[in-house]
Each structure stands twice: as C-alpha cells, then as structure tokens.
Design goal:
Its EC number is 5.4.4.2. The protein is of the alpha+beta class. The chain has helices at 29-34, 73-85, 150-165, 188-203, 226-236, 284-296, 298-315, 352-359, 370-380, 431-449; strands spanning 17-24, 41-44, 55-68, 89-91, 101-105, 123-135, 138-146, 179-184, 209-220, 241-246, 252-257, 260-265, 268-279, 319-324, 328-331, 335-346, 367-368, 391-395, 401-405, 409-413, 416-425. Helix 5 (226-236) crosses helix 10. The protein binds the ligand C=C(O[C@@H]1C=C(C(=O)O)C=C[C@H]1O)C(=O)O.
Length: 450
C-alpha cells in the first residue's frame, strides 16, 4: 500500500493527470472508508436526487491537493484545477467514475484557520489517489496520478485492485462514542441579546434578515470513529448530502445536509431555497398539523421568500429561463423545512465555481443585504464559522459539479467535536423559539455521537 500514500509532493503537483477506472463488485462502504488513508473524502448524494440518482464516492488519499485563501479563493481554485486538468489522459467508460476534485470553502472571505479550524484553509480540494464510486447497483474503481508515467499508473491500479480484494465484505457499525461534556459558545442571555439587537436592526430598516448561529463543543467519552459516524448519518438522513473532508493535519469536517447550493450539468442549473423550520410531531397527524402551520406561517414564508428572491436575482443575468417550482415541505428525521426547487438554463457555458461564488452565501445562511448581514454575523458570533454553512462538493474537468451548503455539520479534532447550527432572524423572530430551533438542528450530529 505504500505507493498509494500521498507524500508532501502532492500538495504542489507538477505534471499531467492520468486517470484509469474499471467496474468492480460493489465493496462495503464502511470497509473502504475504514481502510482509506488521509486525506479521505466522502460524498454521498440524496437517494432521490434527479441528476445523480444517489451516488456515493469515497476518496482514499490524494493525488493532488489544491488550496487557496481570501476573497479570490473561488477563482484561484478554478485556475489551479484548469492547470491540473489540462492535457490529462483519462480513460473511463462511465461518467460517474471520472476524476473529480472534492472539497469546499470557508464561509467568510477573511476566514481564520484557528481552533477548531486549524488545518482548514479558505478553500481545499482533493483529487483522490483512489476513488471508489457507487451508483445504483454498480461500482467503479478509479486511480488518479499526477506526474507519473503510464507504467506508474498501471502499478497503482494493480495495488488498488489488491487493496480492494483484501477488504472485508461486510462492515458492522461500532457503538457511538458518547458525550462526556458539553460547552456552549453562546449562553442563553447572550443569545437573547443578539437576537433582540438583530430584530431591532431589521425594524429600523438597516437589515432585512440575518442568520445567526451557535457552536457547541462536545467532549467525547470514547474514541471517535469518523467512518462509523458517517455511516450512521447516512442511514438516518438518506435524502441528505453526506460529506467528509479531512484537513491535512488530522482534523475532520463532516455532516449530513439537506441543502443543495447548486448543481451544474452542461448549461442546466439546479438549485433551491430551504428556509423556514418547524419540528417533527409524535404522530403522523401532529406532523401534518405542524407542516400545515409552517406552510401558512407569515413569518416563515417571508424568511423563505427572501431566499427565493435572492437566488433568482443572482441567476437572472446568467440565464435564459428560470423555473421556480411550488413551495413544499421537506421532512427530515428531526425537523421540517419549507423548500422551493429552482432550475435554470444558462445563456452560455459557465464553470460551477462561478455559480458557487455568485450564490454563496444565500440568505438561508447569510442574510440581506449581504454585506451588512455578514458584518453582523462577524461581530455577533463569538466563534469562527470556518467551513460551516459554506459550499462543499465536487467539480470535474468540464466545470460540472454539485455543491451543498455544509449544515448539520461538525469539525472534530482528537476527542472534541464542535457542532454548528443557525437560524434565520426576521422582524418577528422570538429569541426563545429560535434557541429551540438551534437545538433541533444539532440533533443529526449529536444523535450520531450519542
Ligand atoms: C442555518 C441552518 O439552517 C438554515 C436555516 C433555516 C431556517 O432558519 O429556517 C432552514 C434551513 C437552512 O437553510 C442550520 O441548519 O444551521
């Protein structure tokens, strides 16, 4: 396996990309990820996703890592990716198995790589050394090299095939680690004051909406298994985007988010608004009652309208048509949301990173007007958002890809897991109800740990 491990050199790649893939018998997800080297990548799309039809990818190690910082991080990543993909030699019979860059961005332009985000730059994308892709009932092995010879890639392929055949075919999930201690970054009084101050800003017309978040530091009782935690999240949230991004220093960012930021295939864009939240009922009747109440809530519909409007405004200059579907309920294991799917046809070819940059942050996680909302978030939140609520996903050589908004997520370092969750504040937000909503949004990750 030593040849499969990425050395320091992968972080400043030179030479051209060679990629080979072949169909394989679907291996066990848990076995693959448990025996993968860092940086590992996990990406799984909702089972029902129309354009991807439920795809899972695990990346073992790195053939190349692209990193960038600052407000031009989107462009820098795109340029470095273009260098990487130029003159590449890719041999695959399946679109799903093509080489892809997986990673994401920090929420703020002036992101600070300090705890709990040390190791996470403003942007990081990994071209996996080995990519295992599952789609429907099929699976593929892809091996990527940069700056190696043709003979080199054949050897990597042989090693990777041997590695796969050595894996156990079943994976039993271990018990969750449990939580020994919890510490909130924001106490209830500070929260109340922050929400009231934002509501006041909205009432005087300085803001229209702002999304305020909280952080929860959980010290684990036992050792964390990242693969097992992800497997639990995938099981409870099959209709979410599951993700894992390894920093290069041993930290991990993982989650299961219901929110798509954007997908691009050719000139077809899929996106959507997700904002406005209520809980789950104890019975189907109670669930229905809560859903109906959410659909008719003036406050939640206003919160949601602002997101739909902002997305349409960003897409309009780029698109020939924009289609806004009917507003509906998105029911998850712990909460229900208002959701409006949107799609568009672009007037010309665009790279998905241009769309990601244009859309991030939508008012579902930032606010309006964007600059004032971001300044309010910066001065109000006593912690670093890091990669929380920011774009995570993948793109390929053609500039196609999918990005989700990294919600219901946590960053882990040794025995501490820091969870994040936020809520949209509008004129009639009540601090105590918003507090409760934050606690509900911690549940996906908390349940996977307890
Ligand atoms: C900010 C979060 O969620 C966002 C805010 C929502 C709301 O305020 O109703 C709903 C879904 C997400 O767009 C989060 O989960 O942390």
């Amino acid at each position: 396996m030593s040849r499969l491990r990425g050395g320091e050199s992968v972080y400043s790649f030179e030479g051209s990309l060679i990629s080979r893939s072949l169909p394989i018998d679907p291996p066990s997800f848990l076995s693959v990820i448990r025996s993968s080297d860092t940086p590992r990548t996990v990406w799984s799309t909702p089972e029902q996703a129309s354009e991807t039809g439920g795809t899972t990818v695990v990346g073992n190690g790195a053939a190349a890592v692209l990193r960038a910082d600052g407000s031009d991080r989107f462009m820098t990543i795109r340029e470095r990716a273009t260098d990487l993909f130029t003159n590449s030699d890719v041999d695959t019979d399946a679109e799903a198995a093509r080489p892809r860059l997986f990673g994401g961005f920090a929420f703020h332009d002036d992101h600070a790589s300090r705890a709990p985000w040390s190791g996470f730059p403003g942007a990081q994308f990994v071209l996996p050394r080995i990519q295992i892709t599952w789609k429907d009932d099929r699976a593929w092995l892809t091996v990527n090299t940069v700056g190696e010879s043709q003979r080199g890639i054949e050897e990597y392929l042989t090693d990777a095939t041997q590695w796969l055949s050595s894996l156990s075919t079943s994976g039993e999930n271990s018990d969750p680690p449990g939580i020994a201690d919890r510490e909130r970054a924001t106490d209830r009084d500070d929260w109340r004051a922050a929400v009231e101050a934002s509501v006041e800003q909205i009432r005087v017309g300085a803001l229209r909406k702002v999304v305020l978040a909280q952080a929860l530091r959980a010290t684990l009782a036992d050792e964390l298994s990242v693969p097992d935690t992800l497997a639990r999240l995938r099981e409870t949230y099959p209709d979410c985007f599951g993700f894992l991004i390894d920093a290069l220093d041993g930290a991990h960012f993982l989650g299961a988010t219901p929110e798509r930021l954007v997908s691009l295939r050719g000139r077809t864009v899929e996106t959507g608004a997700l904002a406005g939240t209520t809980g789950r009922g104890d019975t189907p009747e109670e669930d229905e009652w809560l859903a109906r109440e959410l659909l008719s809530s003036e406050k939640d519909n206003h919160e949601h309208d602002l997101v739909v409007e902002a997305i349409r405004e960003q897409l309009e200059p780029l698109s020939t048509t924009i289609t806004t579907d009917e507003r509906r309920i998105r029911r998850l294991a712990t909460v229900q949301h208002l959701e409006t799917p949107l799609s568009a046809e672009l007037t010309r070819d665009e790279h998905i990173l241009s769309l990601v940059e244009a859309l991030h942050p939508t008012p579902a996680v930032g606010g309006l007007p964007p600059d004032r909302a971001l300044a309010t978030i910066r001065t109000t939140e006593p912690f670093e958002r890091g990669w929380y609520a920011a774009p995570v996903g993948w793109f390929d050589a053609d500039g196609n890809g999918t990005f989700a908004v990294a919600l219901r997520s946590a960053v882990t370092a040794r025995d501490v897991v820091t969870l994040f969750a936020g809520v949209g504040i509008v004129a009639d937000s009540d601090p105590d109800r918003e507090w409760d909503e934050v606690q509900l949004k911690y549940r996906p990750v908390l349940d996977a740990l307890e």
